[in-house]
Write a structure and sequence with these properties.
Helices cover about 35% and strands about 20% of the residues. By secondary structure, it is α+β, with helices and mostly antiparallel strands.
């Protein structure tokens, strides 16, 4: 199948059967240059590898895998800030890690070291300038480590003050995992913190039990047995949300920071695969909002650069010409000097102007009728709606948007010899609502739609959620049409 060429930023790429990763490599190269500038005065043992931000992590050995083929997590780190000798500021240092290095093979240790140095940047993205604190409100946030092939690992971080008296520097507990489930790891951090108050030695057996436990399927629960002195044996239940694509999402934060109308403007820019930066003082707000915005795209997947929290040393990534979703702490906003072709969203509660910079056409991207339907559906929710109910309502409404615009795609994937091909012309001709056509013509040129169709051509999944929802929608429309015709005939 011949693909159209499509333009992202200032670069021209071809959406072929193999994904073009040149933009990601360009950003990886940018990471390399910045890190070399920062660490060129240090010895090679202290400087991050040129691949550290995108370096793959060695897979666990066969004996470590559970029956699902996936571990709860790969590494647990405790990252502390250590005063620099003869210099101002602090540098991150791993004071504890699990599994320990002596139980790893050589190749795994090498790959693990690259990953650890990348995690340093994200645990303390503010940089090296810290002052000892007597009070610090702990916070939990997440970040993503992206590899050159586009695969991603999730980093979960809880920052808090270490035990002691007087002014101290915060430390970070960081879990690296392929599992995307923020709520699940927040609960794991609660258990880690509980054991930390007794002794750091109590963390090891709990994490060992977790590593050996089978990762439950969405909607299922696994129980971990753990012993704590003076408390006895405890059974900890860990449950994954039933809806797999929502287990890393909490829409509460997104709708607390932005109005419904503002969320739709952000959504419009996102489906057009633009350059979008979110700004906030809180790391947890940045990570939760970025993951929520990406989840609005389901069943499509954001295919470009996604960094929920940008470390200061990597701020030049904001100058990349290709599409991205980035989270930037507010004190670094002044480092972004070029606002051209950018949507910059201020998530601060006190911000009067939520859009620091915008292109200006965001209101006209979505079909007017569907935009109004989305606003009406979102306004019907209750303000005290729990997280699960809000996630369900929001996801269903945005899923309905894609069903009504491109849900008929499967009818235009035809078999041609031994292959299946998407018939774009017939697809566009069969759009029922012509008011949707301008949006659809733009959307089908995006990489997220292109890769979605490639998967449909090679590995169709008629039992998938989107296919089922599309079928339900068409069946409902048929019933409504039949009922309308019956009423008309009865009246006549």
């Amino acid at each position: 199948m011949n693909r159209e060429k499509w333009r992202t930023g200032e670069t021209l790429q071809t959406s072929a059967s193999n994904v073009d990763y040149r933009p990601m490599k360009k950003i990886s190269s940018m990471f390399s240059t910045l890190q070399e500038k920062l660490h060129r005065a240090k010895s090679s043992s202290d400087s991050p590898s040129h691949q550290s931000v995108t370096a793959p992590i060695a897979p666990p050995s066969g004996r470590e895998r559970n029956y699902t083929g996936q571990l709860f997590f790969e590494y647990l780190l405790v990252v502390s800030l250590r005063k620099k000798s003869n210099e101002e500021g602090y540098k991150p240092h791993i004071t504890y890690q699990f599994p320990k290095r002596d139980v790893m093979g050589r190749s795994q240790r090498e790959e693990e070291e690259k990953c650890m140095k990348a995690a340093h940047l994200f645990c303390f993205p503010e940089g090296i300038n810290w002052a000892p604190l007597t009070e610090y409100r702990s916070e939990t946030f997440s970040f993503v480590l992206t590899e050159l092939d586009g695969s991603r690992r999730n980093g979960y971080c809880r920052r808090l003050l270490p035990d002691g008296k007087g002014a101290r520097i915060p430390e970070a507990y960081c879990i690296i995992s392929r599992v995307a489930c923020f709520g699940l790891f927040s609960k794991i951090f609660d258990e880690v913190e509980k054991r930390r108050r007794v002794s750091k030695a109590m963390i090891y057996p709990f994490m060992q039990s977790l590593r050996e436990a089978p990762l439950p399927a969405p909607g299922n629960t696994v129980k971990i047995t753990s012993f704590i002195p003076d408390s006895g044996t405890e059974i900890i239940s860990l449950t994954r949300p039933a809806v797999s694509w929502l287990e890393h999402v909490d829409f509460q934060t997104l709708f607390r920071c932005l109005t419904d109308e503002q969320v739709l403007l952000v959504f419009a820019a996102t489906v057009m695969e633009r350059r979008i930066i979110f700004v906030s003082e809180e790391l947890s707000t940045l990570s939760q909002v970025l993951h929520a915005v990406a989840a609005l795209l389901y069943p499509f997947v954001w295919q470009h650069t996604f960094i929920s929290i940008i470390p200061e040393v990597l701020i030049d990534v904001c100058a990349a010409p290709t599409p991205y979703l980035l989270g930037v702490q507010k004190n670094m906003l002044e480092l972004i000097t070029d606002h051209n072709d950018l949507l910059i969203v201020d998530l601060s509660t006190e911000a009067k102007n939520k859009f620091i910079s915008r292109i200006g056409d965001e209101e006209s991207i979505l079909p007017s009728k569907l935009n109004k339907e989305l606003l009406l559906a979102l306004s019907a929710r209750k303000h005290n709606t729990c997280t699960d109910d809000l996630n369900r309502l929001v996801s269903e409404e945005f899923l309905s948007f894609f069903i009504q615009t491109v849900g008929h795609f499967s009818q235009h994937v035809k078999r041609c010899g031994n292959t299946r091909q998407f018939q774009k012309k017939s697809f566009l001709k069969s759009v029922q609502h012509k008011s949707h056509l301008d949006f659809i013509k733009l959307f089908i040129r995006t990489q997220m739609f292109d890769l979605f169709i490639q998967e449909e051509e090679t590995q169709p999944n008629p039992n998938g959620v989107f296919h089922k929802k599309v079928s339900e929608y068409h069946e409902r429309k048929k019933r409504e049409k039949t009922k309308t015709q019956w009423v008309r005939s009865f009246v006549v």
